[in-house]
Amino acid sequence: MLLVLLAVVFAAIELLPGDAASATSERGEGAAGLAARRHLLGLDRPVWERFRDWITALPTGDLGTSARGQHVTDLLAAPLPNTLLLGGTAFVLTVLGALALGIWAAARPRGAVDRIVDLTSTAAFALPEFVVSIGLLLVLSLWTGWLPAATVTGADGAPATWTMLVMPVLALAVPQTGWNTRIVRAALADQAAAPHVEAARLDGLSTSRVLLRHALPGAWPAIATGVATSTGMLLGGAVVVETLFNYPGIGTVLAGAVADRDTPVIAGVVACAAAVITVVLLLADLVRARTLGARS
After folding, report:
1. Long-range contacts made by residues 33-41, C-beta under 8 angstroms, separation at least 24?
2. Could you say which architecture CATH assigns to the domain 79-247?
3. Tens digit of pLDDT for each residue in 158-207?
4. 250-265 as b/e, with b when 16 or more CB fall inside 10 Å?
5. What is the pLDDT of residues 275-296, one digit of tens each?
6. At CA 189, angle to CA 186 and CA 191, rounded to 5?
7. CATH 1.10.3720.10 segments of the chain
8. What is the pTM of this model?
């Protein structure tokens, strides 16, 4: 899947108007200079040859060289940890929020709380990240002045203060919390009809104990799968969120690379994101296999 995805990236950049040579050329550079730059970047070679050379070097950790002469590995070394911090924090907040809201609603099925959580989670999931970002900027920055509107980096290239993480994290976490809350609620509703859960309820156990000790363990496979799929959405949404908040992550690098038609950088970002998503999906599969194996 990764091989096909990266091939599609190379082909898609090839179909865009212009190329890396013209996008990164100096103002007024002549045809001879552009031709020399294209030859230097290998753009005069077929796209399949460039893809073959890039993909064969990938297992060694070589992500190629950008159109501006930087090693892609070095170019991503600083912003990638910032994106992982942003996405990881949003991921943890999503999991905790979804579990809390889903369990809260499941404890009061068909009640007012259940209906409110269902309506709120649906609305949250329907909101794109850029809409949430703009709303947070208006309320928490422009109207109240509680949080900085843009991210300022310190000497190490990371956000200067933790307050600069609050709005980007919320912008990523709100839609995915809505999605995963619905998954948690549905998984717990399915488990409520299971014989062992009904037996625990008939034994007179409290609602919280029935949910946490008997229903939740059986719901973990569905919850883990839903949370794992959110990883791709969080990393994808980071491109928009980082641009809006001037956050120093790979989303900003990716936006610049698309403008430069810089195929190695774009493919490098995709490869890093795919590696993170693959690890999370693997962990979700392990949770699912362990849970189902224990139940069988």
Report:
1. 41/67
2. Orthogonal Bundle (1.10)
3. 888 889 999 999 999 999 999 999 999 999 999 888 888 888 888 888 88
4. bbbbbeebbebbbbbb
5. 888 888 888 888 878 776 655 4
6. 115
7. 79-247
8. 0.84
